[in-house]
Specification:
heterodimer, A: about 240 residues, about 30% helix, B: about 280 residues, 4-stranded antiparallel β-sheet, two-stranded antiparallel ribbon, 9 helices, 8 strands
């Protein structure tokens, strides 16, 4: 009875998941999770921070371990001295910042846990400037609702990108990390610069940053769902769970 | 000869019946989508972190020699070829994922699809469970039907109940209208321990919820411990379901199913004992 029941359920579930109604229900559950989390969590509530003794012996990297583009190869060969982070979109003063300029800003160091959507976790120490003041310096427009991160890595022609809301963009732990465990970011972990958005899963932490754009809507970017994995594989945009 | 009775008992109130069936569906979907989520990283660890370079206490996967196995610690290898770690899908293609297609939702590998099912029904579990909890406090279902009395918890009483179960001597007459002590303990375990543990360990795995309520992580000893406990409680729940369905079949499936659908139960007649 159990086996027959589960067999039936299984065949049904695969078929149901493809319907418009199911997609709406799934999206509704994601929106509910996002809203409830924003409602019950203070804006600046910190993700847990750990001690040096908790750091993973080896910090696993995932996704791209070496971007394939000639542009990236050229930047890497020059040790990223030609690399610039472009800050644009809905800002009063678009910026093009060097790595040294980013390192000259007030820095934050935090030991946090990185949770992959697959289930594993690794603890590491990250250093970099806090994102919020950079956005403020660029003169973020009041029309901006999301911050989009464009990257150098691509998967079969589609460029990696991610996006977060302004609550996470201005969170005190949201930093642009250039160091992991006191050393410059290794290439597999996103050299020269990656996002840390500590209250969400790993795929939100965009690596190999190229440009940051403030936008009012995610509709016109990529596939319109706010990120590479969201577009290509239907992962949830809100990855707090 | 036993006398046929026309006596009927109203055994299950409407909120209990609604919750039972909604929960049956919810738990099946959550178990099966959970197995698919496990397939994305079929290793379990204790502590705050754990990834491929760290030591798992449990892993399920293919063996180098073409089989499949479950590995507990670094000593115990349980061969599971054909079922876990290496199995054939609907088309006869060999797959090396942990749990086979017939045990997962979706049946074909999709972590994002499984997560969508899991979190949609996670909300159903939490909302329906909360409604059931409040209703059962108000209509005194917990007090009257589910919680064992002090007398029922006496060792002599429990021992008698264990012996009755072992001999498959199931209650008859009026006694069949009530839950027996072992049954009550099983339901208390599920309602007040296993389901809340599933929800709490599930929440403890969310990086967003960790910022909301970091104490929960410390309670379970870190995120990877919470993930392990989540998995163990899920299998305890599965064990409960198997025993629960077996007991329904032994006690008379039609009568039991009818009572959980309509509320009305026909107690089995008292057996006459011949000396």
């Amino acid at each position: 009875m159990l086996v027959a029941g589960s067999g039936l359920l299984l065949a049904g579930c695969d078929r149901i998941a493809a319907t418009a109604g199911a997609k709406e229900a799934f999206q509704g559950a994601e929106d509910l999770t996002y809203r409830v989390n924003r409602l019950i969590t203070p804006r600046d509530a910190l993700a847990p921070q750990y001690s040096g003794a908790d750091i993973s012996p080896i910090f696993r990297s995932n996704g791209t371990s070496m971007p394939g583009s000639p542009d990236y190869a050229r930047l890497l060969a020059n040790n990223f001295s030609d690399w610039r982070l472009h800050v644009g979109g809905l800002v009063a003063r678009p910026l093009a910042v060097t790595l040294d300029q980013l390192k000259a800003l007030p820095q934050r160091t935090q030991i946090t846990r990185h949770d992959c959507v697959e289930g594993w976790s690794a603890i590491g120490q990250w250093t970099g400037p806090v994102l919020g003041p950079i956005l403020q310096f660029a003169g973020l427009s009041s029309a901006a609702r999301y911050i989009v991160f464009h990257c150098y890595d691509d998967f079969g022609g589609a460029a990696y990108y991610e996006s977060i809301d302004l609550v996470d963009a201005f969170h005190p732990q949201t930093i642009l990390a250039w160091a992991l465990n006191n050393r410059p970011l290794p290439v597999p972990n996103g050299a020269p610069l990656r996002l840390r958005v500590e209250r969400q899963l790993g795929y939100k932490h965009a690596k190999y940053l190229r440009a940051i754009k403030a936008v009012a809507s995610l509709d016109k970017i990529g596939g319109g769902k706010g990120g590479f994995w969201e577009d290509s594989s239907d992962y949830a945009w809100y990855a707090g769970i | 000869m036993a006398q046929q009775t026309d006596q009927r008992l109203y055994r299950h109130k409407l909120p209990t019946r609604i919750w039972h069936w909604l929960n049956a569906l919810t738990i099946f979907i959550m178990l099966m989508s959970g197995l698919m989520i496990f397939n994305a990283h079929p290793r379990l660890y204790w502590g705050k972190y754990g990834a491929n370079f760290d030591k798992p206490w449990l892993q399920i996967g293919p063996t180098p020699s073409g089989g499949g196995h479950v590995v507990i610690g670094s000593q115990v290898f349980i061969p599971t070829t054909g079922v876990l770690g290496r199995w054939k899908d609907q088309r006869g293609v060999v797959q090396t994922r942990a749990f086979p297609y017939w045990a997962t939702i979706p049946s074909r590998y999709s972590l994002s699809g499984a997560r969508r099912w899991h979190f949609l029904f996670g909300w159903v579990l939490i909302l329906a469970g909360t409604a059931y909890f409040i209703t059962s406090l108000i209509n005194r279902h917990f007090r009257k039907d589910v919680l064992p009395s002090r007398a029922e918890l006496k060792p002599r009483h429990l021992w008698q109940d264990i012996k009755d179960h072992a001999r498959l001597r199931l209650p008859t007459g009026d006694a069949a209208g009530r839950y027996n002590p072992l049954q009550k303990l099983a339901y208390v375990g599920v309602i007040f321990f296993l389901i809340p543990m599933m929800i709490l360990t599930g929440l403890a795995m969310g990086p967003g919820f960790n910022a909301t309520f970091p104490q929960l992580l410390d309670l379970f000893g870190g995120r990877q411990s919470a993930r392990s406990i989540h998995f163990l409680c899920a299998f305890a729940l599965l064990a409960f379901i198997i025993v629960h369905v077996a007991m329904v079949i032994l006690a008379g499936p039609i009568n039991e199913m009818r009572s959980m659908i309509t509320g009305w139960f026909r107690p089995p007649p008292e057996k006459q004992r011949h000396g």
